[in-house]
Amino acid sequence: MIVSVGGGAVGDHLLNTAIAARPLSGARDRPWRLLVGHNLPARERERVSAASGDGVIVEPARPDFPGLLARARLSVSQAGYNTSTDILSARVPAVLVPFADDGEIEQTMRAKLFEARGLAIALSPEHLGPQSLADAVDRALELDPDAAARPGLDGAAQSARLIADAIARIEA
Prior knowledge:
By secondary structure, this protein is of the alpha/beta class. It contains seven helices and six strands. Residues 3-146 form the Glycosyl transferase family 28 C-terminal domain.
């Protein structure tokens, strides 16, 4: 179970809620790893670390995040572009709590799209609480990301094929 907040500038509420949600979830016996971004203020990092207990690992964001995610049972995160792409590559079920302050809609749209494709459970930030997150985690653990309608991630190869096909038609 990986809980990540990207750079972390706005992730303290998700991290603290995850700590409170763990004992309420069916995944309470699994270790939960919370990755704290480098932009989270030091005081908030200390608060998150102090609140964590047995079975909760709090550490800085790691450069091997994609590999961690590939071995994880579940991802809990916001719906940032990079993390969302990593979730797709890792084929891991997810709970997405999009950043939606100040009229931001990009992450909300992405979270809803992932949910519509069976890749994630979307949880709006205004409904984020320990019980709602625990419930979302339990529902997400039932998802089968391998059976989900997953978009292709080989855009460069597809583009090269299309260009080669177009050139072949022109030369023919």
